[in-house]
Amino acid sequence: MLGVAGLETTLGVLEEPARRLNEFYVKHRLTGRPFVTAKFAMSLDGKIATATGESRWISGEAARRHGHGLRHVHDAILVGVNTVLLDDPELSTRGPDTDRRQPVRIVLDSRLRTPARAKVLGPGTLLASTLEGDLTGAEVIQLPADARGRVSLEPLLDELGRREILSLLVEGGAETHASFFAGGHVDKVFAYVAPIVVAGRAAPGPVGGQGVEHLADALRLRDAEVESLDGDFLISGYVDVHRDS
Q: What does the pLDDT look like over 224-241, one tens digit per residue?
């Protein structure tokens, strides 16, 4: 209409910055699924815990505050059931204005192993499982199983999208991260790196699974940024995979 009126128009001005400002909404509108962020803290040599399982705290206070900020801006947080069994996290967010908004808490729990007294249970908690069940303090969503008998992530993401969950923060553990990366579901990564060396063949890393056989097949971050957080380092960027969004 403006062109018909004789006014010069230019399309696409600052399109990329605008898309990033609204990336949660854009991803949901284009695909019907939430924007997925993977978050983890690790040592300089890529360990998320010692060989004995000690993991608190690899990152410092500033990095943990930043991580709670990520929780605050996402609609939902997801962990695997092994994280619940090992760490018993609350998956709540702390800081200013958190009384007004807490994200939906989701546990990827294929066989319904979440203990009845787990801290994560409460109003709004979702358990994604291949089984039908009932657990006080949570809604159980029964979903199809994948080839390994675990919850298939595609139907889960579709269901979250139908529930108007525009953004999902995946906090682990290693096998859960591996499933999301392998399926091409991760849009952005926040990796907190502490300048410490843990070592140990049995010490776990942030992403498990089988991994790639060739470096050429490794997922690469684009538009990566590095930020100092009071002695720790935050590496963030977008996963360089082909996607509609």
A: 999 999 999 999 999 976
